[in-house]
Structures are given as C-alpha cells and as structure tokens.
Amino acid sequence: MTSPSTQPPAFTHRLPPALRPIRPILTAEDWILRGLLVLMVFWLLVGVVFPLWPMVVRSLQDPQGNWVGLANYRAYLSNAALATSLGNSFYIAIATTLISVVLAFIYAYGLTRTAMWGKPVFQILALLPLYIPPLAHAIGLIYLFGNQGIVTTGFFGQLPGWNINLYGANGIIIGETLYCFPQALVILTTALSLTDARLYEAAQALRTSPVRTFFTVTLPSIKYGILSAIFVCFTLAFTDFGVPKVVGGNFNVLATDIYKQVIGQQNFAMGATVSVFLLIPTVIAFICDRIVQRRQTSLVSARSVPLQPTPKPWLDSLLFSFCAIVALSFILIFLTIIAASLIKVWPYNFTPSLRHFNFKTAGGGGYGAYWNSLRMSFYTAIFGTIVVFISAYLVEKGKGLQWLRSLSYFLSTLPLALPGLVLGLAYVFFFNKPTWQFLLGTVPNPFNFLYGTMALLVVCNIVHFYTVCFLTANTALKQLDQEFEAVSASMAVPFYKTFWRVTVPLCLPTILGIGMYYFVNAMVTVSAIIFLYPANLPLASVAIVNMDDAGDIAAAAAMSTLIVVTSLAVRVLYWLLTRPLEKRTQAWLKRA
Amino acid sequence: MDQPYLEIENVSKVFGKFVALYDIYLDVYPGEFVCLLGPSGCGKTTLLRIIAGLEVQTTGRVIQAGRDISRLPPAKRDFGIVFQSYALFPNLTASQNIAYGLQNSRTPPAVINARVEELLQMVGLGSMGGKYPAQLSGGQQQRVALARALALSPGLLLLDEPLSALDAKVRASLRGEITQLQKRLGVTTVMVTHDQTEALAMADRIVVMDQGHIVQVGPPREIYQQPLTPFVANFIGVMNTLPGVILAESGGGTDRSLGQIRCGLQTIAADLDGLPANSFITVAIRPEDIQVLALDTPLTRDLTNRLETTVQAVEFLGTGYRLTLALQAHPEQVLLADLSANDARQWEIGVGRSLTIQLPPHLLRLFPAQAPAAVGSAATTHPASAKVIEPS
After folding, report:
1. What torsion do the CA atoms of B70, B74, B75, B80 make, to the nearest 10 degrees?
2. Which DSSP category does B214 fall into?
3. Which of A59, A201, A409, B160 could form a disulfide with A272 if both were Cys (CB 3.0 to 4.6 A apart)?
4. How far is B271 from chain A (nearest CA, A)?
5. Is B25 on the interface with A (CB under 8 A)?
6. Is residue A23 a contact partner of residue B237, using CB atoms and an 8 Å limit?
7. Does the beta carbon of A483 lie under 8 angstroms from any beta carbon of chain B?
8. What's the whole-model pTM score?
9. At B254, which helix (H) or strand (E)?
10. A583 CB contacts (<8 Å, ≥6 apart)?
11. Strands laid side by side in the B33-37 sheet
C-alpha cells in the first residue's frame, strides 16, 4: 500500500494558491445561535450604550433644551461650590481606597497565609457589610458617632465622650470603607489563595528571609489583585450616593450634586453635565482595570501545590487581634442598626418596641415599598440570571461570528464602568422621551412604553449589576471541557439539548449564585433607581433616603433592618439550597 | 485496490498569517488504521478537526465514502470522536453518556438499553454502567468515551491523542485493546498522536507530519527503516548522524561495489543510492544497528566500517544498555549504540573502556546535506560537529 500522497521532502513555505474559500453550510442550529447572539447584542446596545447618548446630548443643552455647547461644563467648573465637589469626590475616593485596600489586604493575609484561629468565622463576618445597604451603614454610624451617638456621648454620659465630627468627610470615608472593604477583600483573598507552595519552599531552601520572601514572592504574585482592588474601591467610593447623602452634611460630592440638581432643582441639563464628570474617572479606572487584567497571566498551574500556612504564634495572634477588631466593628454597626430600629425613643426611652416598624407615620411608602422591592429583586434575580447565563453561553460556547461575540463580551463588561446614578439618569433621558429626533424627522420611541414600569426598574438593575454576573458565568463556562459541544455535534445532538442536559446542571451552583447576587443587590441599591422609580412604585431602599430626609431616622433604621434581614435570609436560603448541590457538582468535576 | 474511504484533497488551513496546513493530500482506505504523527504544532490535530468538521479548511476538499463533506457541519457528517480529555459529561453515568447520541435518534428505550449493554461489554466495562465518570479511572473513562463514539456505528472513528492522559501501563494495554476492537469492527480510523511508539504499535499506516506538511506516509516498518528525511529518522526512534562527503562512487567495503564516504579522518563504505561524488551528506544509523564487536573478534573478518571508540557513558535501560561512544579519531563525535544485557555483562563494559564497533553498510542511511558553513579546508578536515539528536 504505497501511497502516492508522499510529498517531496523539500518544503515550500508559501501560501496555497488563493482558491474560493470554503464556506460551511449553515444549519438551522447555526441560525438559532446567530439569531440569539444578535438579540443579545441588541439588548446590550439598548440597555447599556444607547441610553448614554441622550445624556451626553442633554449635557450640551440648557434647561429649555437649546444647544449651548460646553457652556454647562464651563458653568460647572467656574462655580466654586460645584467645583469643590469634584475635589471632594476625589479626596473621598482616594482616602477610602487607601484605607480599605490596606485593611482588606491585612485581613485577607490573615485569612489565607496564617494559621490563626477562627478563619471560617472571620471569612463570613467580613462579608456581612455586603448585605447591608450603604445607606444603612450611614444610619448605623449616626447612632454611633452622630450628635446623640453612643460613642459621641460616651455611652450617654457613662464614659468620656468622643466626637469624631461624623457629618462631613470623616463620616463619608468611614461609611465608604465599610462599603468597599468586603469588595476588596473578595478580590485579595482570591489573589492570595492562588499561590504555589513550591515557590515558598524554594525561597526557604535558598535561605531567603521572610521579609524578602514577602517582597519577592508574595507581592509580585498578587500585584494584579491589588491593582484590581484599587480600581474597584475607587469606582465604588467615587460614585456612591447613599453614604454622602446621609452623613455628608455640608460636604458635597459629585453624586449628591447630581441628586440635588435633578431632584432639588429639576435641572436635568446640569445633572447630565455632572454625570459626565462622574463618568470620566470611572471609565478611566475601568480601562486601566481591563489592561491590568489582560496582562495578568496565571502563575498557578494545575500542578501547583496549595500553601499550608505554618503556625507562627507571634504573627498569628497579631493578625487575629486585627481581624477581631475589624469583624467586631462590623458586628457593632450591624447590631446598632437593629437596636436603633427596636428602641422606643433614642436616647431617652430604651424600652424595646416595634413601633418604628409601623411605617404609617413615616413617608416613603412603608410596607408597600418593601413589597415592591421584594418583587423587583425577585424579578431581577430570575430574568437577570437567565439573560446573563444565556449570553455568557453564547459568547463562550457559540461558534462563528467571532467579531459579534467579542463585541458582546465587551458590551457585557461595560456596565462596570457606569455609576448607578449615571445609568439611572441616562435611562430617564432615553426611555422618557416620547419621540426621537433623527436627521429626517421624528419617530416615536419604541421603548417609551417601559417608562415608569416595574419592568424598566428590573432592566435597570439587571444592567447595573450585569458585569460581575456575566464574568462569573463566563468563568464557570470556561471551566467546562471545551469539547462537550464537539462531542455532541459528532452524535448529531443539537446544542440546546446539551445546554439543558449538561451545561446547566454543571453550572447550577453558579447560576444560583448569580441569582442571589442579583437579589441582594437589587434589594439594597439606591443609586440606579432613585431617578427612575415612579410614584406608584415606592421602593424600600429609596424609602430610607426619604425617611432620613424627613428626619425620621428611627424609621429609616427599621427599614434598613428589614432589608438586611431579608438579604441575609436569602443568603441562608441559598446556602441551604446549594450545599448538597455543591457536593454533587464537586464530585462531578473532580478528575479521577 | 479498493476505493479510498476518506480522501483529503489539496487541503490547506490558514489562521490569520499562520499557515497550519499546506496542500495536504491523503487517502485512507476502508478498515484502515491511520496515525497522524508529528511534533506539537505540526498541524495533525488541525487536520483531524477538519475531517470532523470542527474546523473549516481554507481550501481543499474532504470526501468521505464518495460524498464531498467539505461544507457539512459536524452534525451532518458520519464519525465518532474520542478526545484526549475524554470529554465525558460528568453529570451523566457511563451508560447515560453512551446512550446520549442514541436517545436523540428516536430509538426505542429497550433497543437503546440493549445497545448500551452491548457497548459496555465490548469495552470491558460490563458492570460499570451506573457509575459517574469521576468514579472511574482514567483508562475506564477513556473506554466509556470510546464506547460513546462507537454507539452510533459511525463509518469513521477519530481519535485525538486518546491515550496521552493515561499512565504508561494503562496506555500500553489500552493500545492493544483499541487496535483489536478496531480490527474486529473494521471501522476506518484516524488517530492523532505525538507518541511514535504508539503510532508504530497501532497503525496500519503512519502519516508523519512536520510544519503543516506531510513528510512521509507508509507502514510502520517502512517509516522506521527507510525514513525519507533526517526529520523522520529522528522523530521515529533514535538516530545517530555523522556529517560526511562522498569521495567515490565505488571502491568502498570488501566487495568494492559500495561508495566511499569521508567522515572526518575515517572512510566509511555505504550504498550511495545514486548520490553523486563530492556531495555533502549526513550518514545516519540507529543505535540498535551498530554492532559492538566482541574483543575476540578476529581481525581476519570483514574490516569494513570498523571504528575505534571509547565508552563515555553507560545507561541502563532494563532490557539492555545504551552506550555513549566517542570516536577515538574524533572524541567530540559521539554515537549511541545498544548492547544486550548479556553482552554487556560478559564483556564488562564500563566507562573509559575501548570498544571496536562496526557500521553495517546496508543499514546506513544517507541524506543529502548542506555544505558545512566553515570556510577553508572544511572538506578535508571535516569537523565532526554532528550531534546525536534524541526524539522530542
């Protein structure tokens, strides 16, 4: 069987003659995949990109809608009070970033690299602030450090008092740190736990001092994690609205400026202008983060040996004390919020009472608002999870139309750069307009019917928290064998059957995790929906703002308690649901 | 000869600026077991994926059983595939994995169950049907993957490095089982591997690939014994090489019909195979073909291609020894030679020992070579710069 196909050994390294390129036949399946992908891109364009356009346009108009060019920007920068806010925002964001990243790093180091006692407990307690709206933190701070606060009055005269001048920069920085700390901690814990013990053994074998090992082995391996944490904290602190609203006093920041311009003065043009100022630094942080992430190459391979920290009594007890102080302060604030909601008249009558939970006298919508928030969070969780998972599947496992999938991926990461306030305001401009002006004339806005509905609130929430969910789903899908789809195709099994029978069951813990993330965030968020909610749909988190505005802090604390308890309950439910599931999935994914 | 079952005509694949496959022609005959063999990045996996339709060729045609399948998606082609990673669905049992494709074809459940049972028996996993992949060993998982690929009785079986993730022992036994099964079912099979032993042991024909080209196609023995290029020679097994230049087209050896080659200070006789005098060449010989002469070999016997060497290193291989021998005339030039355990014991081989070796003229292979780069009297004092190249 000598084959005639043996080729001459001399290679001809030239391209083959240009023939008509082979185009594979597209099947119904291919068209379904493509159709879904186009639908996804359309959804992301309408949900993320298009709404930004009318906002930018609005910032170039006067309140009556006449074109004024950059006049608004000039007006903003020449107004001393407003320009101060820009500086204030940077000051708050930088200070918060520094404090939270340093604290989170030490805490994460304790959790991952020491043999200190109680690590699982510290792990859980550190994430407690995630379930508390930033607004509620601010309320808790008022009860601790405000004019009538426990610490300020020295436990109501029992001890020497300590006034930290809460209202202003101090309060905002403390509140933002509480908000940013768990986010930084999650990133840094992940970075610190992904390490190879063999590097440390090698350093030890070469008689490297612990300090030098720290600077030559530990830090380089987590520098991308640290940078990522810095960008995330900066963006959160720079754009947050809740904390400065409640404890900011006369210390203005960009986020509160937007609120005042839009809600207080109904000056939408100036609101849009300030939004652009808010948007620019976050977009820069977003781009930097993307560049950093792209550079990151994993130092950890499948063959890496996990690090087992050895006990070092001195370091362990030092970090234990540190973590204990941090965790206790979280608990303290958490308990303060709950206590404040249960005490009859702070600080005069400390008998426990549920009267603050009777929201009849307080503004904000009471239990109706709470119920609306529950519904909104539930819909956000259901629809958000479905949309995110399917789009992540299309991007990761789809075939063909590479450019459309790349575009889809890019658009999915974009919401991370959009502050909630900006997104909400952009939605107002985009969806509220009954007609659009094009070059040739006006057309009715096909999305206008959504304005003022629960559906738009849900869409806004889905987009607001889209990126984290998308990346989570993407990571989970990447971990599945790349050949599942190829094997199914070889057996002529359509992709949707494999999606349903294999992909979804294997990713179920991730899917439930995304659902929970959506629920909790939709429950606590204020910024994205504060401009968007219609009067007939009051929301619990917005109610906190309104109650605080009206001076009814006890009711605000009660509403905060309701939200926190709900979020924690959902977290516990998730844990109960996924624990057996997790075990099974882990057994599946384990390689024999 | 039969019509080829699978014909690959003029197939090229370009990824951006990188050309993965150049103008590939290959015929695979019914029931044949063909191995695509080559180093990583040679294009063998790309070729397999093009046959499967998982990758689309830039140009060229793929014809299976007389039908042009070039433009068909994988689902419309007729093949079963096994991947290195097994790609078993972890949330389905072994039986459910095997039944996965059958369930899609509207076969009655009873028929499916019977077929799954039959396939499990066939791959020797009769009682394991209810287990999840994670509960099976690597070898068992690969058997399940094989059964799944064969479940729909495909006309073509594609194996993508199916044994690479397994332990050496399991690999050797599964190797035999796969070939037996393939012969029994008579299914035309194309396997990709970078392991030459695997290819030599399993294939009816080996297709050696390098840098997107097919460099040689032939049965394992032919590939091993008559490599067409130094690349093939080095990739399949171990090959010693000596640079040389042809002195004369006759007059070498005892019978004077062989050509004479100058390798440094030595003259070597070999069958020139039509190569002209004064051309630069590389002389190649396999370690097992070098004859180590017993110390008592009489000088009266054939003296052709006898070389004096010094033992530089001795490597124990279990079944025998591999010696690293330095030529006494050119100590920088080393040759690897194999010696049976018995001979080594008898002759008390050790480092520093002098040994006479003989290169049998008919086992030498000559490859045309470039003139050495050194200027001046390079041709006469030929630097013994060649080295032994181990297979990658």
Report:
1. 120
2. E
3. A59
4. 21
5. yes
6. no
7. yes
8. 0.84
9. none
10. none
11. B79-82, B156-160, B188-193, B33-37, B205-210, B213-218
CB of B355 closer than 8 Å to CB of B310:
yes
| pLDDT tens for each residue of A317-369 | 999 999 999 999 999 999 999 988 888 877 777 788 888 887 777 777 788 89
If we measure between CA atoms, which residue out of A242, A238, A249, A263 comes closest to residue A88?
A: A238
Interface of B with A in 206-225 (CB under 8 A): 211, 213-219
CA B233/CA B241 separation, integer angstroms: 10
Per-residue pLDDT of B217-235, as tens digits, reads 999 999 998 888 888 988 8
- Nearest Cα to Cα of residue A258 among A503, A401, A76: A76
Whole-number CA gyration radius for chain A: 27
For residue B172, give both structure tokens: 């050797």
- Which chain B residues are within 8 Å of A491, Cβ to Cβ? 80, 100-101, 104, 148, 151-152
Question: What's the token pair of residue A505?
Answer: 């069951």
Q: Output the DSSP codes for B63-129.
A: EETTEE-TT--GGGS-EEEE-TT----TTS-HHHHHHTTGGGGT--HHHHHHHHHHHHHHTT-TT-T
Instruction: Name the residue with tokens 């956000």.
Output: A380
Residues in chain A: 592
**Interface contact flag, B134 A3, Cβ < 8 Å:** no
Is A551's Cβ below 8 Å from some Cβ in B? no
Q: Is A280 on the interface with B (CB under 8 A)?
A: no
Q: Which residues pair with A569 in a beta bridge?
A: none
Residue A572: count of CB within 10 angstroms of its CB? 10
Q: What is the pLDDT of residue A380?
A: 96
Asked if B12 is an interface residue toward chain A (Cβ–Cβ < 8 A), one would say yes
The C-alpha torsion from A544 through A548 and A554 to A560, rounded to 10°, is 20
* Residue in chain A lying closest to B228 (CA): A9
A112 neighbors A105 (Cβ within 8 angstroms): no
CA distance A481 to chain B (A): 6
